[in-house]
Amino acid sequence: MSAQTPIARVEGLGASHSGTSHFWRQRVSALALVPLSIWFVCMALSLIGAHRYEAIAFLSGPVNAILMALFIIAALHHMVLGVQVVIEDYVHGEGPKIALLVSNQFFAWLVGAACLFALVKIAL
């Protein structure tokens, strides 16, 4: 016996009414981050002790700039999804919950815009 309504069972919606969409977006972003994180760590290790100009030259290459942009976007998207789960699980008041969810999105957009702006400035 299920506590869900018949329509919720048909649509596959859980208590949060978001179904498995959030789950899959988090898993896909995690999967995308695996090769991107390996690339990022290798890149960061190769630039240890390098001068600023070498790092700028490295990120000026189109492949490295694109990979860095993808890493930034995937990491921020994954972060937003993870923090959203924490907020939904541990903040019980509707007002604070909505404020924190909006702040979470705003913070990610702000950081993403700043990172991508800097990357475009370096690459061009």
General description of the model:
By secondary structure, this protein is mostly helical. It has a single domain (21-123), classed as Up-down Bundle (3 helical TM bundles of succinate and fumarate reductases). Helix content is 81%, strand content 0%. It is built from 5 helices and no strands. The protein has helices spanning 6-11, 21-46, 52-60, 62-90, 94-123. Helix 2 (21-46) crosses helix 4 (62-90) and helix 4 (62-90) packs antiparallel against helix 5 (94-123). The longest helix is centred in the last third of the chain and has 30 residues, at 94-123. The termini are far apart.
CA radius of gyration: 19 Å
Percent in strands: under 5%
Q: Which structural class best describes the helix and strand composition?
A: mainly alpha
The number of domains = 1
Q: Given the C-alpha coordinates, what overall shape results?
A: elongated
Major sheet attributes? none
Give the rounded overall mean pLDDT: 91
Q: Give the quaternary arrangement of the chains.
A: single chain
Helix content: over 70%
SSE run: HHHHH
Tally of DSSP helical segments: 5
CATH architecture: Up-down Bundle
Concise synopsis of the structure shown:
The chain has 124 residues and is mainly alpha-helical.
Blueprint (SSEs and pairs):
Layout lengths: L5 H6 L9 H26 L5 H9 L1 H29 L3 H30 L1
Helix pairs in contact: 2-4, 4-5
